[in-house]
Amino acid sequence: MRILFAEDERSLARAVAALLEKNNYSVDTVCDGQEALTYLETGSYDALILDIMMPKMDGLEALRRLRQQGNPIPVLLLTARSEVEDKVTGLDMGANDYLTKPFSTAELMARIRAMTRSQTSGQTTSRLTLGNITLNQTNFELSSPCGSFRLARKEYQMMELLLRNPRQLIPTERFLERIWGYDSDVEMNVVWVYISYLRKKLTALQADVQIKVTRNVGYSLEEC
User: Any alpha helices (H) in the chain, and if so which ranges?
Assistant: First the structure.
C-alpha cells in the first residue's frame, strides 16, 4: 500500500515515513499542499496524510481542491489544532479522519488501517503496461512474456514513475524528490545507478521498451 504524506516539519516527516516503511507501506513525502496535489496527479496512492498548517497551500485548501476534482482517496488530517471547529471543518470538506498532534504512533497506524480497510478488502491487482512490459503494483513484479523480476522498493518506485509518464522526459531532480525525499542529501548519480539496474532487467526480459537518457537532464521510457 502506498501513502502520500504532506508535512512541512521535516523531522516529523522523516520519523513518520520511517514508521510507515517499517510497517511495509511505501511512502512519499512532500512539504506543502500544492506539491501534494502535483504528486497525486502523476502517482497512484492508497491514502493521503495531510497536515493542515503548511506553506504555499495549506492542507484544507488542498483537500478542498482534491474533492472538487472528484478524487476519493482516503485523507487523514494531521494538525496541532485541537478545536472542535477545525475538526468539523476538515471532516465536512471531505476528510475521512482527523488526528491531533502530538499523537502516538500506535494510534496513527490504527487510524490508517481503519481508513484504508474498505479499499484493501476489495482490492484487485493493479498493473501498468507499456509495450510487452507489465508492472504489477501489488507485488512489485516487472514482467514480460520472457520472464519476470521482483523489483526492490526504489527500483519499483522509479519504474512506476516512468510507466505513468511514458515518452515524457523526467528530470533527475524529480526522481530524487519523489523517491528519496525533498530533504535528502543523496547525490544525483544514485538515480543513474538504479536506472542501470532497471535497464539490465529490461534487457533480460527482452523488452520492446527502453529507458532513454538525456545527458544532464533526465530519463524517459519509450518504445524501441
Answer: 10-22, 33-42, 59-68, 84-92, 105-121, 153-164, 172-175, 189-204
